[in-house]
Design goal:
about 325 residues; alpha/beta; 4 strands
């Protein structure tokens, strides 16, 4: 069929996103970026902490729903100039006001074509709940952030180009595509990759190896070598095969997803860490296992032989994890 021939030709793309880097650069300048920045904006740092520090946006490293709002969502749209950035932020405000992504999906239909699958109801409401509960402060903080980004937008350009000028985009892209990850994950999970592309934004500012930007996009730090990048791409692709929106709707797993979303995500992450060794046996010490505290989960999982495909075996796996004292 035509759909599967498009899938077979699909390749993983390494690309740039100015905003993703600008945002991390800005976070580091105020001490929110996980590394010592200039920290010459104590007033801005204090204001942002006062508004949204309570929901994770603070020193030493910002995280949580406000970060998603000003980093992941805008960077997945990848605005080309400060004017487009202003449009993105007005849609972010609309999202908080209405609880709907329609502003984004109407304005950027191609870029958001998988958002319904990614931000399915449970996911979207868990993102929005803390933002809506702190609506006035969040709106203030968003305006401060937008002004800050617009102010530093022109000055960062030269530094950005300089930091990426020697990055081997094509060489790494070819090497990653030669691993045949899409086919191999399909074999592991018995399901198709749910999207028509996978894009890896290479960022010279982020201290983290990899982070989601959206359904078919991740950010990876340019400071990491090829082996780390291969692990990051393999991992972030793998977690997309057991599609959370499908698991959230399936009768057998719907209740579990509603009652213990975090536990279910841990099961999926564990499964990916275990099966990834079939695909990249050379990983050795896996940073994804350490970062998520999954070593005891992985040790438990390798001893079990599930009797059906992963998604079908989830309720039984969940029970076994519970019996093993992991949940």
């Amino acid at each position: 069929s035509n759909a599967s021939s498009v899938k077979n030709r699909m390749s993983i793309k390494l690309e740039r996103s100015y905003y993703a880097s600008l945002c991390w650069f800005g976070l580091k300048q105020i001490g929110f970026g996980g590394e010592a920045g200039e920290n010459n904006r104590a007033e801005l740092a204090a204001l942002l902490t006062a508004h949204v520090g309570g929901i994770g946006f603070q020193q030493p490293i910002a995280c949580g729903p406000f970060l998603k709002l000003i980093y992941q969502i805008p960077a997945s749209i990848n605005p080309k100039n400060p004017e487009e950035l202003a449009l993105v932020f007005s849609e972010c405000q609309e999202l908080i006001a209405t609880g709907s992504l329609e502003g984004f999906t109407d304005r950027w239909p191609k870029l958001t074509r998988y958002w319904d699958q990614w931000y399915y109801p449970q996911q979207l409401s868990s993102l929005l709940k803390p933002l809506v509960e702190n609506k006035a402060a969040v709106m203030e903080a968003m305006q401060l952030w937008e002004n800050y980004m617009r102010e530093i937008w022109p000055d960062y350009e030269e530094l950005y180009q300089e930091k990426l000028k020697d990055y081997p985009f094509e060489e790494y892209q070819d090497k990653i595509n030669s691993l045949n990850l899409l086919e191999r994950w399909k074999t592991e999970f018995g399901v198709e990759y749910p999207y028509s592309e996978f894009r890896v934004v290479i960022c010279p500012e982020t201290p983290t190896l990899a982070c989601d930007l959206g359904p078919e996009k991740i950010v990876a730090g340019s400071r990491y070598d090829l082996a780390n990048l291969e692990n990051a791409v393999a991992h972030q692709l793998g977690v997309r095969y057991p599609a959370l929106n499908r698991i959230a709707e399936a009768p057998a797993t719907k209740l579990l997803m509603n009652s213990d979303f975090e536990g279910m995500v841990k099961l999926i992450e564990t499964e990916v860490c275990v099966r990834k060794l079939n695909i990249l046996p050379q990983i050795g010490n896996d940073g994804f296992v350490t970062a998520q505290g999954l070593q005891s989960w992985v040790n438990w999982r390798v001893k079990i032989e599930p009797d059906s495909t992963f998604e079908d075996s989830l309720p039984a796996l969940y029970q076994q994890a519970k019996d093993a004292g992991l949940l």
